[in-house]
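Running co-folding for coenzyme A.
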Amino acid sequence: MVREWDARTASSAEIASLLDTLNAVLAADLPQDPPWRERSLREYLTEVMPGQRRISWVAQADPAPDGTPGAIVGQVHVLLLGDIGVLEVLVHPSVRRTGVGRDLVRVAARRVYHEGFSSIGVEVVGDTPAVGFYESLGFTREYVETRSVLDLSGVDWADLAEMATGVGAGYHLEFHPGGPPDELLDAYARAKAEVRDVEDGELRPSSYDAQRLRDSLNCLHRRGMKPYIVLALHEQTGEVAGLTEVVVPAQHPTRADQYDTIVVQDHRGYGIDRAIKARMLLELRSAEPELTEVQTWNAQANEAMLKVNAELGYQPDRDWCEYSVDVAELVHRLDAAL
Ligand SMILES: CC(C)(COP(=O)(O)OP(=O)(O)OC[C@H]1O[C@@H](n2cnc3c(N)ncnc32)[C@H](O)[C@@H]1OP(=O)(O)O)[C@@H](O)C(=O)NCCC(=O)NCCS
């Protein structure tokens, strides 16, 4: 049975059952990824940025003869942002290829259509059943990134300490757990805005002005995701010349996520990318003792950044693709299949 579902009011048993399904999916599709924990999972599923909405449905197995509710064997949610709906679907491996995934997408697509959105996007992990699934539904591939993972147990910390100091004269680095301090928010947002082009095509919203940045940091905190930032400041102008952001999620605190790394055009060629990333890893080593890995996503064309990541010890792991589809076509296709 598929029904609309709100993580805010769901029972703890439902949240636990969804977590079991999520971890079964990870074990089947991405066995090297750490299992998720329950901590802040409800908030992760509930909290959104101002102006965004997330709508969810679950597929639930039939109740047991004694009336015990059935397990949550599938879930879909769609995040409505700007002019696009971003979809995420999970189906427990034990019930795959029985049409559950298609049913979940159908109900979400109909809603997105009725809400007046024209396009749906989804992140699809390479070499998993999701590729065949979305292609069968008419989604097409828009963009591919490579996910790479750094195993911190293999890092040469002395080397890293040297890299962290290898920044050109006239710059200094600052570490800010929790996010940039208020007095740097404007300069930080300017640095992000300048490279907006580079981020076009990404599903993750970026923060181009101080207010949006503040909203985005608050949202991360509410979702149980702890941001860390290293900045390179240009001493002469006080401008943010470079920044790197890593987030440690309460849901999988042994593996952190690298978010944006930006070196502003005028400040390229001074070793800032390498230095800020190395400094970040050194800081995380003491700030997050449980951390064992960091994962990052890069455009395959971004050779400069891939080179620095390779020097730091990142190993390419998977293709990470963005697919999209026209909503009206998707609804039509799914309804025709009924
Ligand atoms: C992708 C996923 C949602 C599909 O769910 P499902 O319930 O098995 O999908 P359905 O049974 O509705 O399949 C519908 C159609 O999709 C296609 N499809 C589904 N799985 C496929 C596969 N492994 N290979 C090729 N085509 C596939 C088929 O055309 C299928 O129709 P058919 O069974 O009649 O041939 C499910 O595998 C899943 O949860 N994957 C993990 C997704 C994810 O986000 N992971 C993130 C962390 S890895």
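Result summary
The longest strand covers residues 140-151.
The radius of gyration is 21 Å.
Job closed.
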